[in-house]
């Protein structure tokens, strides 16, 4: 427990390096995904543009949404945004901070995908090969082909094996030209993204440092509070279950001794804890009855404070319990049902 | 746990080595990106220069900005520079020192990129093949100016059908590569000499002031880390207290309505904090969502988490009259 707390603190306080690590991993995953992807340009006039732009723009959108889905803090943000105000005011600055940091992290993988795609060049070559300036690069007047035919020939540029327009415009010339444009766009995009990131990071301390410190503290607080509450509830549930089951076995054992008229068999004091833990159930039939009872009629979710002491309310009634409210003595009944309307 | 504490302390005290590590990683990344990059010169008259110089200078700018972004100390320096003076004087020498060390580290990856580009030679061949004097080379000397320009701009493309077996193309290529590598090695030599001089001569000038500024820049860095760590610890304790008080107030309310005599708590039941019923648990969870407790753990005994008038519980019959929970009575 303590070790987890230390790790938690370390990661929390070294949030910068943790988050940089996560961003680096996402960037690498995105690059790896691109290289694993098998790009197949259709080499048909209208399909090229759709396919090329689709591969350029649709995966980044998916990666962006995936970045949100995989981020655990999304549910925290949604919960904080939608909760009723109650006794605790809501701070819009904190919500904004949480949202901004999530968006920033989710944008890394799409940005890497777009950069890698543009720098590689295949997408742009596929998408824009029909828009080549043939007059500048090749012989436009050669063979006097109609527009549609020219477009059909140009569309085959990415597929070298079936390209038949070598006299119109050389395949290598066209590919080099398109790839050059694509890489120029790619590097401009990379420069733009890094400049934006740099501005966002460096302008913040100049203007809104105090608000930033406040928002960061309270967003950490909300996160930690939620985790601690879950932890506390889990511990409570464990204790609840333990007591519930203990009371079940004790009730079972008491009922058996009552119905079978056996004197309650006290375990001999020198037999140690092991026989105490048997809770009075010491043979095959009894265990089977206990198990069947556990399956057919689970005890109510209501722990009796002094069940260990009283043994008079249960005689002969260890067959299916239906009304938990009929068992406890009267004054407590009211306390039980008092909240049943909630 | 001890090991974690040691690692933690190591990172705290050695932010320099962390930054050096990041700097090295960026340099390696820049080499890797260059080798992965598929360099394809357009081999067209006006595009060559733009492409070649673009590949040589735009990625270093992006790498420099990356180096600044990834360096934690740049944020620390900016905060120190922009903070209001308050009770603590600002020392410009410290800020200058931090700025210098950040810039030095951020310049490593761009320098590596430029040197690798020059040593490889492709960029310079692409950019300056059109600017070579055609008369120096046998194959181009007889052509007209326009034709020579056209042919020269195709020199970087080995597979081009016009230039595939041209010896003049290879001659131009070798010539430009020779220049490129000479430039690359010269720049490398100059940079290393500059770094060498800076490190060896620095102790001769003003060593005491240097020691002071280095100490205080380290101090500012560590102070900020410890502040963040303390805030984290504080928010954890705050949350813990807040939740405990919430459970406590739930238990008090339950006890108020249920007439239990206070009894000895035993073992597991102590941990249950008086919440021993499905309905009670449901109510607690619902309360947690609909009315989170206020962020105020100073007042332990005077809280009314239900936010309503609480009447003192007189007796069984009229107890629930003003509560918002319905009462079922089994008579």
UniProtKB/TrEMBL annotation, chain A:
| Keyword annotations of the record | Ion channel, Ion transport, Membrane, Transmembrane, Transmembrane helix, Transport
Q: According to the UniProt record, which cysteines are disulfide-bonded?
A: 41-126
What is the annotated localization of this protein? Membrane
Transmembrane ranges? 21-37, 49-70, 184-203
User: What start and end residues bound the annotated signal peptide?
Assistant: none
Q: Topology with regard to the membrane?
A: Multi-pass membrane protein
Quick check: keyword Transmembrane helix in the entry? yes
Q: Which InterPro entries match?
A: CALHM
Q: What Gene Ontology terms describe what this protein does at the molecular function level?
A: calcium-activated cation channel activity; identical protein binding; monoatomic cation channel activity; voltage-gated calcium channel activity
- Any one GO BP annotation for this protein: ATP export
Q: A Pfam family this protein belongs to?
A: Ca_hom_mod
Annotated region described as Disordered, given as residue ranges: 308-333
Write out the coiled-coil annotation as residue ranges: none
Major location, coarse class?
Answer: membrane
GO cellular component annotations of the record: basolateral plasma membrane; plasma membrane; plasma membrane raft
Can you tell me which family this protein belongs to? Belongs to the CALHM family.
Q: What is this protein called?
A: Calcium homeostasis modulator 1
Q: Which organism is it from?
A: Gallus gallus (Chicken)
What are the leading ranks of the lineage?
Eukaryota, Metazoa, Chordata, Craniata, Vertebrata
Gene (UniProt): CALHM1
Automatic annotation (TrEMBL), chain B:
Question: Where is it mainly found?
Answer: membrane
Keyword annotations: Ion channel, Ion transport, Membrane, Transmembrane, Transmembrane helix, Transport
Q: Which Pfam families match?
A: Ca_hom_mod
* Keyword presence, DNA-binding: no
**Transmembrane residue ranges:** 49-71, 92-115, 182-202
Membrane topology value: Multi-pass membrane protein
Stated name of the protein = Calcium homeostasis modulator 3
């Amino acid at each position: 427990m303590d070790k987890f707390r230390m790790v938690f603190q370390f990661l929390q306080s070294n949030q910068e390096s943790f988050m940089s690590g996560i961003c680096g991993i996402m960037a690498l995953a995105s690059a790896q995904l691109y290289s694993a992807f098998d790009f197949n340009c259709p080499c048909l006039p209208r399909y090229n543009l759709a396919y090329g732009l689709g591969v350029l723009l649709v995966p980044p959108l998916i990666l962006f949404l995936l970045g949100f889905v995989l981020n655990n803090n999304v549910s925290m943000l949604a919960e904080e945004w939608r909760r009723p105000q109650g006794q605790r005011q809501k701070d819009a600055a904190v919500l904004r901070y949480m949202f901004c940091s999530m968006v920033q992290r989710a944008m890394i993988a799409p940005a890497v995908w777009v950069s890698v795609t543009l720098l590689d060049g295949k997408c742009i070559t596929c998408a824009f090969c029909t828009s080549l300036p043939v007059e500048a690069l090749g012989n436009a007047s050669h063979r006097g082909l109609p527009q549609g035919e020219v477009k059909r020939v140009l569309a085959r540029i990415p597929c070298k094996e079936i390209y038949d327009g070598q006299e119109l415009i050389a395949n290598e010339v066209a590919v080099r030209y398109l790839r050059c444009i694509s890489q120029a766009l790619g590097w401009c995009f990379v420069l733009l993204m890094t400049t934006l990131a740099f501005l966002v990071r460096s302008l913040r301390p100049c203007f809104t440092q105090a608000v930033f410190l406040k928002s960061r503290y309270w967003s950490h607080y909300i996160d930690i509070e939620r985790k601690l509450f879950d932890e506390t509830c889990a511990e409570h549930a464990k204790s609840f279950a333990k007591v519930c089951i203990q009371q079940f076995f004790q009730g079972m054992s008491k009922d058996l001794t009552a119905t079978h008229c056996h004197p309650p068999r006290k375990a001999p004091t020198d037999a140690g804890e092991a026989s105490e833990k048997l809770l009075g159930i010491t043979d095959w039939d009894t265990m089977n009855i206990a198990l069947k009872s556990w399956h057919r009629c689970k005890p109510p979710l209501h722990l009796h404070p002094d069940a260990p002491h009283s043994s008079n309310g249960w005689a002969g009634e260890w067959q299916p319990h239906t009304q938990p409210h009929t068992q406890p003595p009267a004054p407590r009944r009211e306390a039980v049902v008092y909240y049943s309307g909630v | 746990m001890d090991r974690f504490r040691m690692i933690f302390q190591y990172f705290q005290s050695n932010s320099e080595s962390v930054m050096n590590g990041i700097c090295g990683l960026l340099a390696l990344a820049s080499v890797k990106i260059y080798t992965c990059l598929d360099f394809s010169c357009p081999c067209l008259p006006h595009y060559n220069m733009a492409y070649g110089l673009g590949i040589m200078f735009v990625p270093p700018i992006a790498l420099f900005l990356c180096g600044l972004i990834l360096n934690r100390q740049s944020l620390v320096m900016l905060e120190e520079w922009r903070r209001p003076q308050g009770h603590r004087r600002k020392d410009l020498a410290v800020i200058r020192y931090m700025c210098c060390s950040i810039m030095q580290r951020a310049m490593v990856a761009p320098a590596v990129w430029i040197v690798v580009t020059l040593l490889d030679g492709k960029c310079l061949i692409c950019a300056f093949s059109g600017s070579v004097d055609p008369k120096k080379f046998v194959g181009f000397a007889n052509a007209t100016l326009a034709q020579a320009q056209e042919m020269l701009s195709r020199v970087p493309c080995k597979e081009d059908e016009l230039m595939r077996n041209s010896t003049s193309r290879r001659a131009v290529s070798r010539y430009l590569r020779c220049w490129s590598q000479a430039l690359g090695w010269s720049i490398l030599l100059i940079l290393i000499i500059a770094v060498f001089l800076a490190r060896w001569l620095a102790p001769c000038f003003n060593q005491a002031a240097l020691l002071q500024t280095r100490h205080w820049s380290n101090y500012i860095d560590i102070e900020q880390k410890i502040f963040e760590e303390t805030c984290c610890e504080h928010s954890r304790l705050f949350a813990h207290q807040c939740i405990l008080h919430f459970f406590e107030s739930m238990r008090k309310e339950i006890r108020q309505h249920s007439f239990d005599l206070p009894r000895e708590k035993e073992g597991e039941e102590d941990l249950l904090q008086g919440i021993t019923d499905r309905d009670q648990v449901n109510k607690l969870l619902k309360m947690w969502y609909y009315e989170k407790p206020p962020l105020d753990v100073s007042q332990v005994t005077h809280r009314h988490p239900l936010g309503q008038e609480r009447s003192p519980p007189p007796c069984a019959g009229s107890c629930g009259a003003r509560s918002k929970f319905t009462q079922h009575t089994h008579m």
